[in-house]
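Quick start: read one record
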Amino acid sequence: MSKRSSPRRPTRGRPAGQGVTRDKILRSAIDIFAEHGYAGARVDRISKAAHSTDRMIYYYFNSKEDLFVAALETIYKELGDAEAALDLSGLSPNESLREIIRFNWNHYRAHPEMLTLLNNENLQQGKHVGRSKRVKQLSFPLLSLLSKVLARGVEEKMFRPDIDAYDLYIAICALGYFYLSNRFTLSAFLGRNLMASRALANWEVVIQDIVVRFVSLAPQTMRSGAHAGK
């Protein structure tokens, strides 16, 4: 059903338990979008998974497109909330950087639906997230934390002074995102199970070593455990 022909929201009062119903629809939508992609996530599939009705989806979200925007907003907000809870107190710049990398990697691992939704949105050329005012207003503390860690590392003569926090953030995200989003094709191509426990633990260390070596003034020794999956 196209947005033009979608039923409009009822004008009468909302039913009791509206927050619970809306949240169930939204969580079910995230699962269905992740499983079937934007094109394959039919409204009736979502309403069935939420034990609701198509009418209630249009009631709360107006259209499938608006529901997809809300799903993207939710995964971004959950990422921002998790970043805000990251505690680097008492850690050296080096260990703080490793902790940021561990956090990023483990958040991706714990939220595969996030990777799938972002893959879908990239296929849509970012048109949904681009029209979301809420995403633009969300706070993503990790970039700020990364900037502070880099500044401390430079001050303590551990890190190079020419590292841009945005570049480093993209590199950290890319090293984790690419591995997980391409895990099936890479596993088949390389003939290795990249989702085996040892392989996952190994790659977490590899990301840390790549990034720490890149930012460090002095060469860094690789931590024990790297290449454990080989």
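The two ends are 50 Å apart (CA to CA).
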